[in-house]
Write a structure and sequence with these properties.
mainly beta; 6-stranded antiparallel sheet; globular
Length: about 150
């Protein structure tokens, strides 16, 4: 979890409470380095609405108004941004296959096809599996991805 600076002092339980009635927007790759920065290079793949309360009785399971939801475009999930009900950004979560916080029923999304979240867990900040040089990456055809020095 990559928490917005406004909420860095919040505990995991407080973050979960902030998400009551909020949204979880799933994006393709090229996520911002922090949750404080706008998303400018990633396409919206799907939008989930958290129920209120956003996390169930066992405190681990995220609860959504609808799951699955129809995909809004085609792509592979790379991260998801969670916002409060008023639209304030709370945190970014890693998403996709492998050791990610959010897992889906499928590896990729197709417009109109159902997108289902099958698992949602919290990984401490700084524990994301992505390489740091991929943050804010802006790949262009014919150019190599950033290299680790």
């Amino acid at each position: 979890m990559n928490v917005a600076s406004e909420f860095t002092a919040c505990s995991e339980d407080e973050i979960k409470a902030l998400l009551d009635g909020g949204t979880l927007t799933v994006y393709s790759v090229a996520r911002p380095i922090t949750a404080d920065r706008p998303v400018d290079r990633s396409g919206v793949l799907a939008v989930f609405k958290f129920a209120s309360p956003a996390f169930g009785g066992d405190a681990a399971a995220a609860v959504f108004v609808a799951n699955p939801v129809p995909a809004s475009s085609v792509g592979t999930p790379g991260f998801a941004r969670a916002c409060k009900a008023d639209g304030t950004v709370v945190a970014d979560f890693s998403a996709g296959p492998g050791p990610r916080e959010i897992k889906f029923g499928e590896v990729s999304c197709s417009q109109g096809a159902p997108v289902k979240i099958t698992a949602f867990k919290f990984i401490v900040e700084g524990g994301w599996p992505e390489r740091p040089d991929y943050y804010d990456a802006h790949p262009r055809p014919g150019f190599a991805m950033p290299m680790v020095p």
